[in-house]
Every structure is written in structure tokens, then in C-alpha cells.
Amino acid sequence: MTSFHCYNQKQKNMSGILDDLPGSAVNLTASFNVIETILNNSFAHLPNLEFLSLAQNNLTSIDPLAFQKLYHLKYLNMSFNNLSELSPLLFEDLHNLTSLSLANNNLTMLPGEIFSNVANLEILNMRNNHLTNFSMLIKSVAALTNLKFLDLCLNKLTSLSDLNTSLPQSLKVLHLCRNNLHTLGCRPSLFRFINLLDFSFNSKLPSIALQGVDLSNVKRLLLQSTSVKAVEFLNISNINAGHVAFSGMGLKNNTLLMDLCIFLRRKLKWIKNVDLRHNCIKNINNNTLSICPKIIGTLDLSNNELKKVNCLEFLNNQTNISKFNAEHNHLTLLPSCIRKNGTYFNSLKELSYRYNRIRSINRYAFSHMPNIETLKLNINNLAFLDRKALKGLKRLKTLRLDNNLLTDLFKETFSDNYNLQILNLRNNRISVIFNGTFMNLGKLITLDLGGNKIAHFQQSGLEGLKSLSKFYLDGNYLKQIDSSYYRAFQDTLTVLDLQKNLINYHSEVTISPFEKLRKLRNLKLDNQRNHGLVLLPKSFFKGLHSLKSLYLTNNHISTLKPEVFDDLKSLEFLTLDNCCVGVAKLRPGVFKNLRNLTRLVVENMGIQNFSKEVFGNLTHLRILQLNRNVMQSISVDALESLPLLQYLDIRDVPLSCACKNSLLQNYTVKNPNVQVIYLYAMPCQENKTIKFHNFDTRVCYIDLGKYMFFSTAAVLFVFAVSPLLYVKLYWKMKYSYYVFRSWFGDQWNRLREKEEKCKYDAFISYNFSDEEWVMKQLLPNLEGNGSSFKLCLHHRDFELGRNIVDNIVTAVYSSRKTICVVSNNFLRSEWCSLEIQLASYRLFDEHRDVLLLVFLEPISDRQMSSYHRMRKVMLKKTYLQWPGSDCTNPSQAQELFWNQLRRAIRTGSALETEHNETDEDFPPTNNKKEKLLSDENNLCLP
To answer: If you count Cβ atoms within 10 Å of the first and of the last residue's Cβ in the chain, which end, N or C, has fewer?
Structure first.
């Protein structure tokens, strides 16, 4: 971005405004600020500046080297300040400066050498200062060999004493108006190279002051409101009389006019332009101007007191006039000018009666000037326009009838104007366009009907407009957009203005009213009255593939559908400011097809969130105006998705000065490509005394080194402890893994529901080394011998092809009891360990007596120490010890063993009620480890 605008900044130092600007800046406007002083080298970091405006500040002083190193600067504007003096070194580095404005300051003089290094200066504006010494001024500008324009109006010059110093020969335009000149006092040759010389509004300047001054090269001399008398001056001057503007020279009556014409007739055969403005002329006799030289250009009688011009009889034989201007007079009527032998002004091309009091125009009012191409009748009181008033104007191209009181137009009104290209009827009182009104205007390009009372068009009201390109209908009373109106010019229309009508939609429409306007480039729908556009139908803009600009400002749209702008793929400018009701909920994708959009105005829409999903597709966006919305934060990701963004306006947005906006602060302050408007004046929402651009963000950033240290330490700790945990907690981890798998498969819940519908009486958990005992002892005694228990065994009842863990879980929860046949081999088996872990989990979780331990051989406490859950069961429950060969009576002891085991399988009491049972063979245990076959029975040794 190369252009920057810094208005209304509250910074008192220029550095506060300029420090954040990139070195690539070319154009800079820093106006309407409170800067009083510009310090040395204030612009040194902006070496590429070509345009610099410092107008409308409070500058009182500028340091000598303030503009140092601005070698490329071409335009410098320091007008409307309070400068009273300038340093001779101020413009030392401005070698390429071509335009300098110091207007409206308090300068009393200029240093003699101030322009010595700006030889390329062409335009110097010193208007409205306090300069008094003309000779010092000439001395200052003498070195400006390329100077073409010098404005010294509104100073305090009383004479033009030059002290033998000449103006630059390149100077062509010199304005000395509104001074206190009463004499010139200069050398005769001072103005010999001037083309336009302005002495106007020096009321004390007499004719004699110009005697002897060489004005032979002056092409236009302005003497309005001086004491110079026209004929007296022409008699003593060598100026070409045709180059004098006689505006405001007191030629208020016919006598003075005739004297002037007689003098001009003696000097000239023809004159190009006659300027008689501001002479208070009330009427002109028919033969007054006829004795003037032949006028071949413009006759200007504006700003006089003429009450009638009739049919221009007072021009009589001045038939070569090409332009007649009678603006700002007191004309009230244009009469009929039907004549058989009268004068015809065939050369007249342009006629202007603007700013009069014309109430009516009669038929054939312009028949004596048939070749008029431009007719200006606007800003009158015109209420009556005869149907044949414009008859005969077959070459008319531009017609201004705006700002009058017209109510009706008819088919005959424009019947002869078939070459008309521009018709302006704005701000009249037209309510209906009748059939055929514009039927003959096949070449009309621009039609302005804005500001009328049009509620509808008759069926063929717009027929005939085959070339219409620009159509203005704003400020009328249209309630709907009828596509049939545009039938005649649907292939040519490029601009359609429908602002300030009554257009409204409360429901969807299936056909777009603009669908056939294939070349439409500019569409305005702002400010619809009576609550505006409440609804934008999703197909409303269908077919507008060529549209470049769309205006929807100041409506009351309730919602913007994601599809509403889908067809506007060529759109470059969209304004939606103040268009919605309450908080606007912009849906993702609403701008998805607007990839060519360069400027988006969404001011005061109530936007809460500025997200990438909504605005991310605007890859060509350069200007974004978001001011007066309600979001407290703005996503930097969303802004960074706009790669060409140059101008961002977020004024009056309640941005929070919190960590969530820390990245936004950094983006707005340090992004050299995006100009954020009034950034340094934006306050924090929480505290208005703190500015958004410099609120403290240090607490928002994590100490990355500390974070990495702790993260690394944690990883190293995990790696160091993992082997130890694996050794010590191998079984617990293994168990937890299988429990998780079982829970993930929702096994637990399903099996708990089947608790009362068990498929087996007992699940036998054993090691394959003990399978002989299970098959020859356990199985016959529990399933045979009349016991009729149903047992679940690995090799017999597990489902083929199913995961073994799932089989084990199903077996444990499908059996009323789990019998663990414990031996040394059992304890060394991973699968056996898993089975007892699952069974014990069920025991302690459900408080059910579901686990029975049968020890085939003695197991020491040391061997049991690694099986925490098994030891916990043994401390709370009795367990069965298989009577070995060392028993006194093995057969009796085994018979007792099987009886107790059968009894234990049958019981279904909960763990907490177990201590209430009274059985002589199964006494209470008091939570101590006991053997079921006690020494008292003298059947088996401990």
C-alpha cells in the first residue's frame, strides 16, 4: 500500500502519526490534526513520498530540516495553518517539487533564497496571507524558471513595485485579486509573458494605473469590481480588446453598452467571447448589441437583472453566437417564437437559462434556434411545459429540466428530440409515466427521473429506450421491481439507481427482477422507506454476472442467506452499512463467490464475530470498513486470509484489551501493508484511558524455555519409571488392559443383566498340568454321582474362533461360581491369573460369593505375596484344601471335601451375609485364614 490518510489524530507530535508508516509510502495526507510543530527529519524514514498534504492543522512553526531527504516529493500542501515565517533552508532537498500551497496562513514575507533549490516548481499558491512587499516576493520567485501559476490573491499588497526584478518568463497565470492595490508602480514590461492576469476586486484600482503597462500578450484580463472604466481603459492600453472580461465593470445601461460596442467595432471585426456578467443589466434594446463586432463564441449575460429575453431580438444580427448564457437573472416566461421572416440563430449550440424564475414555456419557444445541442432549463419554477415547446430541436443531445415543478409528460413532449442522449428530469413532481412518453428517444443514454413521485409506469411507458445505459429512479414511490419495464433496454443498461423507494419483500421470490439485465454494473437499493428491505430473497440477484457495485445501505434486512450473493462473481464494491436489524448473523459462505471484491463496507451491522469462515474467500479485498460493530475480538487468522488488504477501519468497535487480542494488537501495529484508521486513538473497552495499540500483552505469552524444560523432564521421567512399573505392576497393567477391552465391548453391563439366568453352575479355572485331576476327580464328583451340576471347561465349552479374553469374560459371568484349582503351575500361568483376577473383580464389585479357591497342594505365603487379590480373598473367605496322601483317612477326607464343595456351589448368599450362616461343617471364620478340614476332625494334617 502506498497511500495513507491520517485525519483527526490526537497526537501532538508528528512522530506519533508517522512512525508506523512504511518506507514505501508515496501519498500521505495528514490533515485536521492538532500538530503545532514539525521537527527536523520528521519524514526522513519516508524517502519515497511524492504527495504530502499537511493542510488544516495548527502548524505555527516548521524546523529548517523538517523535509530533509524528500528528494522525490512533487506536491506539498501546507494551507490553512498558522505559519508566520519559514526558514530559508526549508525546501532545500525538494528538488522535484512541482506544486506548493501555502494558502491561508499568516505569512508576511518569504526569505529571498527559500526557492533556490526547487527549480522545478510550477504552481505556487500564496493566497490569503499577510504579504505586503511585492518586490521581495518577486525576488523570492525569480529563481523559479519553470513557474507557471502564481496566486497572490487576498493579501495586503498596495502596489506592485518590482525594483527592476522580473517575473519568471515561464509564468502564465498571475492572480492579484482582492488586495489593496490602488496603483501598480511597476515597470511596463512586468506582465509581458502573462496570459491570464487577475486584478478583480481591487476596488481602488483606477484605469490610469494601467496606462503604459504592456498587456499585449494577455489573453484574459479580469477587472471585476475595480474602478477601471471599460472604454477609458481600452483607450490607454495596448491589450487586445477581445481579451478583456467586461464582467462587473458597471455596464448597467444601454448607453454604456453601446459606447463599448462602438469602440470594439472600431478595433475589431469580430470578437470571440463577450463577458457581461455582474453588470446589473435590466434590459437590452434591440439594436444595442447589433453594433458590436460579430460575436462568434459566447455571449454571457449571467448574474444580471434581465426580466425577459423574448426571442433574442436584442441580438438582431448576432447570428453567429455559438453559446448564450443568461443564468441567474429574473426571467419568468419563454414565449412562442414562431416566425416566418425572423432571425434564426443557426450557429447557436448551447443555451442556458438556469437559476431563473421561469414558470412556463410556450409552444415552439426554441424554433428560432433549431441546431441547439445543449439546453439548460433546470433550477427554475417551471410548472407548464407545452407539449410542443421543444418542437424543432432535432439535434438536441442534452436537456436539463431538473429541479422544477413539472407534473406531466406526454408522448408529444419529446417527439422531435430523437437525437437526445441525456435527459434530466430529477426533482420534479411527476407521478406517472404515460405510454409512449419516450417512444422516440432511441438514442437516449442517460435518463434521470430521481426525486419525483412515480409510483408506476404504464405498460409501454419506457418503450423506445433502446440505447438506455444509465437509469436513475431514486427517491420515488415504487413498491415493486417489474422486470417487464426493462424490456426495451435489458441488453444496454449498466446503471440502475433505485434508492429511497418503497421496495420491500416479505417472502421468497422465484424469479429475479434483474435476471435479464446482463450488462448491469451498478445497482443501488439503499434507504428503502417504510422499514426498508426486510428480506433479500435468495434468488434476488440471480443473473447479475456483470455487476461491479452493489449498494444496500440503511435497510432493515432480517437475515442474509448464504446463497444471496452467489451470482455476483464480478462484484468489486459492496456496501452493507447499517443494513440489518440488531445483531447480524453472517453465515459461513455468504461471501464465498465474491473473490473479485476489492472494497467491503459493513459498518454498523451488529457483527459479533469476524471469522475466517465468513470473510476468508475475499482474496482480492483491499478496503474493509468494520467500524461501529460489536465484536470484542477479531481473529488475526481471518485478517491474514485477506492477502491484499490495505485499508482497515475498526473505529468504535469495543475491542477488549485482553490476551485474546494480543495477536491483533501486534498485527495492527507492525503490519506495514495495512493502514488501520485512527489506530492510535482507539481506546480499550475496559479502560478508556488505555489505548489499544499499546496495552500490556506480556502476560499473554508463555516462557517457551521453561515450558520445554518441564515437558522434556516429564518425558524423561516417564521413560525412566516405565521399566520399574513394568516389573512391579505387570499383572495389574495386564489386568487393567483386559478389563478395558471387556468394558469397551460393553461385556460387563450385558453379563450383569444375565446374573439370574446363568448358563453354568461353575466355571473351572485350572492349569493344563492339573487337567488329569479335573477330569478324573472334579468332573465325576460334580457332574456325576447324582450331583447334576453343569460345569464350564476350557476345552469343552469355549466358543471356537472367538477371542480368548472374551471367552473368559463370558465364562466368568455366565457361571454362578468360579472355581480356581490353585497349584504352583496355576500361579505361573498368565491366563489362570487373568481368570482369578476377573472373578475376584466380580466378587468385590458385586458383593456376591462367586469365587471358590481349591488348593491342590500347599502354597507358602512368600509364593502368594505377588497375588494381592488372591490373598485378599483368602483373608476374607474360607478355602478348600484337597486332602493329599498324608491324610490319616484320605477317602473320608475326600468325601467331606466333595460335600463341602457341592454345598459352596449351591449357596447364593452375598458376602456381607456370610458371617450369619450357622453350619457345623462351615463355621464362621472371623476374617482369619482357616482350613476347612480342621485338626479336630483328625483327618488331615495342617
So the answer is: C
**Which amino acid does the sequence have at 536?**
L
Q: Which of 556-565, 660-669, 841-850 has the lowest mean pLDDT?
A: 841-850
- 279 by Cβ neighbours in 10 Å (0-12 / 13-18 / 19+) ranks as buried
Point out the least confidently predicted range of 243-257, 339-353, 841-855, 914-928. 914-928
Q: What is the pLDDT of residues 479-521, one digit of tens each?
A: 988 888 888 999 999 999 999 999 988 777 778 889 899 999 9
Cell numbers describing residue 333: 416566461
CA distances from 831 to 732, 764, 774, 851, 926 (A): 13, 13, 17, 16, 32
Measuring CA to CA, how many Å separate 375 from each of 310, 390, 393, 400, 882?
Answer: 16, 10, 10, 6, 129
- Eight-state DSSP code of residue 684: P
Q: Which three cell numbers stand for residue 203?
A: 476596488
Give whole-number Cα distances, 365 to 314, 335, 360, 931, in Å: 16, 6, 10, 137
CATH code of the domain in which 82 resides: 3.80.10.10
The answer as to whether 320 is a domain residue is no
Tell me, what's the pLDDT at 940?
45
42: containing domain? 1-112
What CATH number does residue 922 fall under?
A: 3.40.50.10140
Give the integer Cα–Cα distance in Å for 315 and 368: 12
Of 77, 92, 112, the last residue of a domain is: 112
**CA 583 to centroid of chain Cα atoms:** 17
Q: Which residues of 435-459 are buried (b: 16+ CB within 10 A; e: fewer)?
A: ebbbbbbeebbbbbbbbbebebbee
The three-class DSSP label of residue 310 is: coil
3-state secondary structure (DSSP) of residue 675: strand
Greater model confidence, 763 or 861: 763
- 666 pLDDT band, cuts 50/70/90, is confident
Estimate the crossing angle of helix 868-876 against helix 830-846, to 10 degrees: 50
Q: Does any domain span residue 58?
A: yes
Residue 914 within a domain:
yes
CA distance 664 to 285: 76
**Per-residue CA distances from 325 to 330, 424, 667, 763 (Å):** 13, 19, 58, 119
Number of domains the chain is built from: 2
| Cβ-proximal residues to 144 (8 Å cutoff; 6+ apart), any chain | 115, 118, 119, 121, 124, 168, 170
Contacts 24+ apart (CB under 8 A), 336-339: 336/362, 336/363, 336/364, 336/365, 337/311, 337/364, 337/365, 337/366, 337/367, 337/368, 338/363, 338/364, 338/367, 339/311, 339/367, 339/368
Torsion over CA: 97, 102, 103, 107 (sign)? negative
- Cα–Cα distance between 691 and 9 in angstroms, integer? 13
In a domain, 139, yes or no: no
pTM: 0.72
103/535 Cα distance (integer angstroms): 52
Residues 6+ positions from 240 with CB-CB distance below 8 Å = 216, 218
In contact, 324 and 352? CB cutoff 8 Å: yes
Q: Strand 27-29 to strand 384-385: parallel, antiparallel, or no bridges (unpaired)?
A: unpaired
Question: Where is the domain boundary, 63, 95, 112?
Answer: 112
Which grid coordinates belong to 47?
524517502
**Cα–Cα dist 821/835, whole Å:** 11
**Which one has a higher pLDDT value, 606 or 832?**
606
What stretch of H or E contains 789?
none
